Amino acid sequence: MLEIKNLHAELEDGGKQILKGVNLTVPAGQVHAIMGPNGSGKSTLSYVLSGRDGYEVTEGEATLDGQALLDMEPEERAAAGLFLAFQYPVEIPGVGNLTFLRTAVNAQRKARGEEELTAAEFLKVVREKAKSLNIDAEMLKRPVNVGFSGGEKKRNEILQMAMLEPRMCILDETDSGLDVDAMRLVAEGVNALRSPDRAFLVITHYQRLLDHIKPDVVHIMFDGRIIKTGGPELALEVEQNGYGELLAEVQ
Amino acid sequence: MSTTTLASAKPETAPQEPLALRLAALDLPVGGFTRAARADALTRLQAMGLPKGRDEYWRYTNPAAFNQPQPNALPVDESVLDSPLFTSIDRLRLVFVDGRFDAAASDELKGEGLEIASLATADAQADHWAAGVYGKLETAGQTPVARPFAALNTLAATDGVLIRVTGKVSRPVHLVYRRSDPLADVHLHHVLKLEAGSELTLLETGMVGARSNAVIEADLAKGAQLHHIAAKRAGYQKVGISQIFARVDAEALFKSFNLQVNGTLMRNESVLEIVGDDAVAHIAAAVLGDGRVGPFHQDDTVFITHAAERCESRQVYKKVLKSGARGVFQGKILVKPGAQKTDGYQISQALLLDDDSEFLAKPELEIYADDVKCSHGSTTGALDETALFYLRSRGVPKERATVLLVLSFLAAALEEVDDLRLRDEISERLDEWLTSRASELDPSGNGASAKA
Ligand SMILES: Nc1ncnc2c1ncn2[C@@H]1O[C@H](COP(=O)(O)OP(=O)(O)OP(=O)(O)O)[C@@H](O)[C@H]1O
Ligand SMILES: [Mg+2]
């Protein structure tokens, strides 16, 4: 589903190279995890894939279901089925969470030539999904992420994902800042979305999350490249021994 | 009722002086119950003179367009106005055409808890309750800062509305401004007297004149509540100054919100004096300026005096500026000796949609009491790129995302409108307005060339 070939990207400002040849394939129906030391380029990869300004792709390509992602506007990538749960969700004062969600859902439906949801239809679905993520009505009415705790923001990201029903979901450290119960809720939210025609790329530092969301494949990223790929046992290895041995092995 | 007796009664003013020329161009009413106030205003005005660019409070705004004897012609073009506001709510409509009250086009001048008259009609009489307010609050508001155009207004006002409120009036009074004369140089003067415990909502919409000078004097007795909402959206070439003088007594609530869209030169002076304990005064504005069609210069100048204990004042000013638009904010909080437990807050913020636009802010605090809480802040920033990306990554198109972020920026000012019906209507109208111009808001400027 998602195919990344030899992706190189640098900062537009100053030209610092961050991605130095990423190769990665995530087939439909699978969950892949990316682990790697701080600063290795995991978030940058997710931003470049979703179209954030400020990065310049100097080499390589990325496709979603065969469509070239890198030429599209961020909103076109979203309509094509890409979703990024942010490491640091953004606060938007003055814009209600519900208004925001409905605008997003309907914008994507419109872009895909589908009928927009009426207010009533939308409310019914959003209430259901919010409930399963333990997001109450009050939180839905509040401005987007304003005054939300760290964990609430992450749950709100998963609610957006559940509403938008993307085909390719990238989760950037959605587990960080979550308490044990919230982690379970989030994992359940993700697992509920797992399906043969949807794929996940889960960026995390901890094995913990992967206990709940069982990955098919684990990648290790270091200095802008995937340096090792393996099964779930790779995450356990990192958890026990850190990155030292792995790095030594590769170098 | 047009004579120029008052103006010509001052022989020592040389005719070539700017003020003399300015006055000579006006049709000055002699006045009935306002006669003494008008005469006094002339004396004061002659002592002050018209403002000059080097005056402290005119440093950022060039007064020339207000000083010149005649206004520039402003074609009457209804298409520059957006669809009217507040039409869906039950309200008492008073229509002014070129600054003259139009009784035939208005609702009947009555309502429970209301005593209401047009200034022109009332001023045919020698006595009127409004004599106790007319020019009085304006005069008080001239210290320590001179406000020549307010004095000029008291001298020259041809019409306005006089409202005395004796009860809780639930039906808002709506002043609807229309134009027919491309050269109308309007001086409007409104007097509001809210008796103890009374409540009023005053709405203002439309366009007053080619050039306008408006004054509101609002006297709030103990426990009175005034909600004032002005949305005097304008054509691109509008020139106007409006001044509000309020005296807020104990436990009263004064709230004023101003929505200002476009215009060439606009200055709003708000002079609020809190004289009774436990009173609250809030003043807010949402401003959208686009210098694409012509120059845009908008200035909010606020002076709030705390002269009583445990009072709260709050100023929330938000300006969205693009294509060379210029916004000014001068806001002062003065806490007099003995005004203990004052809670004063002031924020002025500009969202600059490009590098050509400019925001000048001068916040001032002057505090003579020791147990007070006063804060002020001012920021100037561009559209938040991270927030824009966040919205777009959810599939919201760039234009829509930009509109949402502009509304988000303005939200804190709009929240100062307590009545949710009114707030929602303003917000929806702003949304429509922004959406219809969304391609021009694009910070990268791509859209502007396509439309221009
Ligand atoms: N806009 C930027 N300006 C400057 N440096 C940047 C910018 N974006 C990324 N970098 C740098 O690029 C490198 C990769 O950052 P990135 O956020 O992708 O790492 P990460 O793997 O997600 O780290 P973490 O595990 O801490 O989240 C870091 O050295 C970071 O400082
Ligand atoms: Mg990261």
From TrEMBL, chain A:
Domain ABC transporter per the UniProt entry, residue ranges: 2-248
Keyword set includes Disulfide bond: no
UniProt keyword list: ATP-binding, Nucleotide-binding
GO MF terms, alphabetically ordered: ATP binding; ATP hydrolysis activity
Any matching Pfam family: ABC_tran
Family in the record: Belongs to the ABC transporter superfamily. Ycf16 family.
Protein name: Fe-S cluster assembly ATP-binding protein
Organism the protein comes from: Paracoccus sulfuroxidans
TrEMBL record, chain B:
GO terms (BP aspect): iron-sulfur cluster assembly
Superkingdom as given in the UniProt entry: Bacteria
Domain SUF system FeS cluster assembly SufBD N-terminal: 35-169
Any Pfam family the entry gives: SufBD_N
Annotated ranges, domain SUF system FeS cluster assembly SufBD core: 186-409
InterPro entries in alphabetical order: Fe-S_cluster_assembly_SufBD (IPR055346), SUF_FeS_clus_asmbl_SufBD_core (IPR000825), SUF_FeS_clus_asmbl_SufBD_sf (IPR037284), SufBD_N (IPR045595)
Family: Belongs to the iron-sulfur cluster assembly SufBD family.
PANTHER family named in the record: PROTEIN ABCI7, CHLOROPLASTIC (PTHR43575)
Official protein name in the record: Fe-S cluster assembly protein SufD
Species whose genome carries this gene: Paracoccus sulfuroxidans
